[in-house]
Every structure is written in structure tokens, then in C-alpha cells.
């Protein structure tokens, strides 16, 4: 240290710590000349000791003025060393960098000034300290002192110039530091970082694009900054990188795709739009590199399809179509299960457009990769069934298309119908709101006869009789009114003369027995008028409830629709369709006289011609309701005609069908009685006294004895209209037939 003091005049040593800047500056100039002389003499030991003295006695001094003098002194030594300065940088630069965090703002300012002067002398030689300098500048860019910030900006510009012209800069060592700093929220630091990214990207020899995944998320994070200037700078940098990606033959799409997927769900609109725009370009450019990221990308796209911003929706839809049009196979790494999982999750979205596109994806996968989709069917089947309750008709229709695609295989068809009935049973509102839509659409997609046969088979064995009745009534109404089922109705109309119609009638009859009105409707449709009349006469008092009358009212109104035009025209020939008249009059007798349905049907029956009501051969031959010409075709004598009529009825055992109907209805009546008895026993269980109970029972018996025998207009009219030949047939709880 004495050597250093001997080399430096005492006045210089004293003035370096003076509080006046001018004195410190003059001392530094004298120190610079002294070092120049030592350099010329090659006295490197003395130079090192001078530097050590400046660090120990000045730069590390507790006195601020001493620290200021030490900084200006180190800069002066560097200037004096000139071309020889590089070998002393490891002594000179660290104390200057440490001064950037000094508590005194003036010390920090002079540290910037000192390092600026040092950098001007050594230029690229100080690149070895770049990371420490960058880190220090990053902090100084957000300094609370405006003068320090200004000094830091000047130093920053000089360092950028040096880095851009240096061939010693290591981007690999710098990127981890940049990545760490990208999470800082301070706006000044963000500007500083974007500035460096832009500068480094402009250097041809520095491959910033290759390291883009390391700081891409940070750039996207800046897009939501409160400062418009920062958002603009970040967007400009991202736009430049995207253009480079388009022109680059080799890009790491995968790592960046993960970042973009996360940013596509940002609450910030500008961030979402930029992310989805990048994803759009990636889908077009990425090719095979993105195959294993398709599920994640789809998970980002689908929600954006329903974004509140139109421009985001447009780009998302375009990207979705682009992604769906790419032809890849599972052997290429395409994960069908992952895509299905994403689509399944998006079916729970609150947005209709997203749910629709999710279903479109399932449908697309089913068409392209049917075998793989069926392997994951159990994972998505329940969700698809729940989607049938969706509030949107468009969604329900698409779900049905997917179900129909799955149900092309017999085992899956059966499973679909079983689950569908189960859902209807579990959720009555689903049957009311969506029943007609679901059944009609399935009939179009999967063949109406096949669907109705399967539904009938399932409902035939249904234990929940009340649900079975409701379901059958719904199916019957769809059968009678839906345009999609016109062929099925035509087939039933010929059920008495052709095998296909007969088999269908028998198949439906078993489950239609759960509803008297459904059976009557089916018979009218099949033109089995005599059986319809017999069914009507088999009804008992218990059947005459509100539900029955509501269904009867619907049927009467349906008789006035175009579907039953053929039936109304048959009324022009009452002699040939006696059983049709008897059936309609039977229905009329069941209706309350003040009801609108009664008036409608009575008005219709008043228009029937009054001739040919007497029984005769002609009436007998046509009593089934089948067109008379059908029986007359290719036959001339009466015996042959009678035999033909007899054979047409032999195909369907209506006696057995009637017994089947009565058995099912007896089950319904027994269940109804059980409910009534249970309700009564529950209400009377609150009685605490046996004597009170006996008294109530006696009163009830007396009331029953005083009450007149059960009778109703409808039942008495029905009795009067029954054929005398069936008067001996009675059953428990039934009217006389």
C-alpha cells in the first residue's frame, strides 16, 4: 500500500474524497496521468496496488464521498491503462458493479458514469461481465432517482452497441437470466427487457428464435400490461418473431404450443387474440411436430369459439376447421382418447357454440377412427347421454347424430336405446321436453321401424308401469303425428293384409298395452276396427280417469288431422266399415258431453250417411276395415271371398292380443289400488285409539251401504253398444263384453 501512496501524490489522494465534484474530477485526471506513466514503465505491480488502494480505501469506504472518489478513480485508472486495461478488469469492474446497489443515489449515479467510461475503453473485453452488468442495469432501470435512470439508460445503450458488435457474447449463458427477469412486473424493467430482446434478435449471429420458448411466456404476459407503450412493444416483438417462424425451416413448435394454450385462456382480450392467432399459424405450419399437442390445442380453441370478441371467434373457428382437416393416424402419435377427453369436458361448457364444436369433433373422430373411438366409448357415453338434456335443440340433434353413428353396431344400438329409456325414466322432464325430438331424430338416423321395435321390446318388460304408460303414450303420439314416421304408418295401415305390417303391429302391441288409448290409436291406424271396438268395451270404471280422458281428447283431435284422412273417407261407406262407426260411437260415449272433444266427434259422426246400416253380406265381408277391393281382387264367388277374409285375420290372433291387453291393464289397476290402499293406511295410522278406528270403519260401511251402485253414462252407453254374442264373457273388475 505504501508503494501506491508513493506513486500517488498526497493532494490527489486527498482530493479524491473531497465533497466537491470538480476537485474529485481534477484528482482523477492527475491519477490518470500517473497510471499512464506507470503503464509506459511497465510497472504492473504498482498499478495493481493503486487499484487495490482505490477499492479498499475509497470504493468500500463507509463515507459516500470516498466511494464517489473511488469510482471516478477506477474509471481514471482504466482510461490511463488504455489497451492494457483488459488484464485488470477483474479487479476494476466488480467493485463498480457492486456500487449499483449503494444506498446513496449519487453513488449509484457515479457508478453508472464510471462503468460507462470503463466500457468505452475496453469495449468487447468486458463481455465476460455481461450477465452481472445486465442484472445491475435491470434493477437500475426501475431506480427511484431520475438521474440514476438517465445514467443507466446511457450505459445501457453503450452496452447494447458493444454486444451487437462483439463475437464473444454467449446467448446460452444469458437466456437463463433473461427468463428469470421476464416475470418482473415493473413497467420500467419490462421496457428494458423488451428492448434487449429486440436488439439481440436483430443481430444475425444471435439465434434468439431458438430460445424463444424460454421467454415467450414473459412476452405474452406483457400484452396485458396497464401501459399501452409496453403492450405495443411486446406485440411488436411477438409479431417479428412470428414472421421469423414463418420463414424458418426449423422451429420448436411443441414447447411454444404449451405456452400458447395457456395464454389462450387469459382474461385479457388482447392476450387471447394474440395467442389464438399464433396457434392458428402453428396449426398451419407445425405439421407432424404438433400431433401430440393436438388435444391441448383443441382444448384452447373450443372455448375461444364462444369468445365475446368477434375477432377471436373468427380466428378460433378458422383454426378449428384447419385442425380438423389434418389427416393423421394413431400410428403417427395422434391420441384419439386425449381428443375425446377434451371434447367430453367441453360438452359441459356454458356456451352453445363450444358444445356444438365438441360434438362435431366426436362425430369426426367416429367417422375417421371408429375402432379407436369405440374403445373409449365408456368414457364418453354417460356424458353424451346427459347432453340429450341440453337446453339447445341444435346440441341435442348433434348428440343424436353421434349416438346414431355409434349405434350402427347392433350391440351399441341396443345399449343406446336401453340407456335412453333409462334416462327418460330417471328424468320425466327430459321425456316431456326432448322426447319427441330425440325419438324423431333417431328414427331418421337409425330407421324408424328398428327404433320402435327396440323401444317396444324394452317397454314390454318395464317394471315401472306408470312410466311405461307415459312412455308409450309419448311414442304413440310421435307415431301418429311425425312426418318422419309416415312410412311406418303406411306399413301399419296394411297390417291386416301384409306380413311386414302384421309383424310390426304385433311387435308394438305388447308394449302399447300399457295405454288403452295407445292401443285404440294403433288399431285405428292399422284399420283393425273390430278389435278397437272390443278394446273400448273391455274398459272398466277404474280406467275412466283424468289421464285417460286427456289422451282421448288428443285422439279425437288427431282424427281431424290429415293423418286420418283415410279413416274419415271410410265413413262415407258405413255399410263397409260398420266396426269403425261402432268404435267411434264407443269413443263418443266415453267423453263428457260438455267437452270440446265430444262436440267435435259428434259433429263428425252427424255427417256420416244414414244408409246401409243394416247387417248384410257386404258389411260382413268388409267388417275388418280393409278396403273391400282388396278382398275382391282375383276372386269371384262368395266362398272364396270369405276364405280370403278369414285368412287375413288368421295372421293376427286378436283374441290372444285382447287377453294380453287385459292382463297388462289388470296389472295397472292392481298397482293403482295398491297406491290407494297405501295412502289410506298411511293416513289412518295416525289414529291412536282402536275404538276410534272401529267407529270410523263402521261409519264407512254405513256410507257404502247407502251409496247407490257404481254407474256412469259412459259405462252404461258402452254396455248398450256391446254385441249380444259376447254377453257371457266377464272378468273380475271388467264390464260385460
TrEMBL record:
SUPFAM superfamilies: ARM repeat
Region (Disordered): 628-649, 665-737
Pfam families documented for this protein: Vac14_Fab1_bd, Vac14_Fig4_bd
InterPro entries found in the cross-reference section: ARM-like (IPR011989), ARM-type_fold (IPR016024), HEAT_type_2 (IPR021133), Vac14 (IPR026825), VAC14_Fig4p-bd (IPR021841)
Biased composition (Polar residues): 665-677, 712-726
Keywords in alphabetical order: Membrane, Repeat
Comp. bias regions, Basic and acidic residues: 632-644
GO annotation, biological process: phosphatidylinositol biosynthetic process
Family statement drawn from the similarity comment of this UniProt entry: Belongs to the VAC14 family.
UniProt-recorded name of the protein: Vacuolar protein 14 C-terminal Fig4-binding domain-containing protein
